[in-house]
């Protein structure tokens, strides 16, 4: 799948649940030289239409990653850009399959089209549903599986586009948010999608001017559904509360819709943007995700002021005194082990470096008792040198020391929304500090992880594991291209692993420098660097660089000066003889007057040496 050209136009992506293959489909795959009992669909909605990819899952026998076996493209009949998409698996089991996949696509002008897909007939249009009067773009499509017979439910959201997306197709002023409901009946011989009478354009009994749907979430409650919709709306009435809203519906038998509540939640969210919501089950509280915390909305309480998670965690909740005494990882034995590991890691743990970065003395770790642990905990959250996410990462590291007790660090990461790449980074640091080097390499070489101290990691691996593991880490993280210090340690690792590779690496770097075009200032810096010390190697490079870039006179002068001053290092090497021979052949082509002028300049330079 090459999506480079498609990515800028993508509006929505959906990955289907697994699709069981029929016996006929399995046989066709075998004839094509592969085998699989299930496949998946990736459907992409973009400005140019629908892109569908059928994928086979990884297998030990054939492939270690997903394989694309089919690729299809489909436009809406109006040719308008596709703004939202979803995949609906019907409940009709056909020849051993778990149902037929249907694709529901929504357009920028509000059109909805439904397509079926199978191995033989590929993509076929089933039904098109005309847009509402407002022609607002389709921004959300939610499909719910059938609860009885073959009937299911589709919820469609219209409204303004996400302002963070760069989409200049539609210049519609004031699109109104609208929620529509459709009862579906997808099976052999009865494929239909019928819109229910009830729809909602803004808060009931109010006149919405404009707005957008931020997120839609649904949950199954027995045979019914609970639907939550987060909106950002503006109303005509002066006394109406504009801003963030949360609407909660109950849907019975896929057709009877009742509104539980429709409330403004701007104060609850402290005017922060809503990122996502999670629908409750059995009238529980709805979770609302904000940029820095999660809040709860209780439909039974009018005054919504309850915070789910505070920014700063409670020390007693995570480091209970009784549990610390019972399960403490900081006993006399572990104190000795940590000191031993410090010495093993050249006198400094990665966690020591992290603490020093936030101006906390590394001697604070490990804490001898609960009081010392609380002091360290408070110092972390008092620091102004790092943001809240990185403070949570430091506490996550401390909680990982409780390996034998309830995986509390995992709960902490979930509670405070530490991203996966930061978790991998801290897991890698913790593993390295605990001399679990294989685990450290696994975590620290994840593509999304950015390691702060690559040189430290490579030095530790080189000293404690061996050059080959250090080389593996360096190659996976592309260390050799980052800085002079990294190049030096990388060269040292190569010398331990393969002298030929080390020499080739050195030649490669020299070739890069040799082919670099420099301006006058850069040339002056290079000349100063090559002449600052009495090293023939640098002067040899300068001569070759001048020849390579056509500075013939300069290369002759440098070469003759080097010869007359007497080459001590490498004067008998093959490269020196070849250089002198090449320069000599160039000099034979120059006129006598130019050679005399060069000789006079060389004599003048030598007289300054005296």
From TrEMBL:
Instruction: Tell me the InterPro entries matching this sequence.
Output: ELYS_dom (IPR025151)
* TM annotation in the entry: 38-56
What cellular component GO annotations does this protein have?
A: nucleus
Q: Which UniProt keywords apply?
A: Membrane, Nucleus, Transmembrane, Transmembrane helix
The ELYS-like domain, residue ranges: 349-506
What is the annotated localization of this protein?
A: Nucleus
At the top level, the lineage of the source is Eukaryota
Q: What is its main location?
A: nucleus
For this entry, the protein name equals 18667_t:CDS:1
UniProt source species: Racocetra fulgida
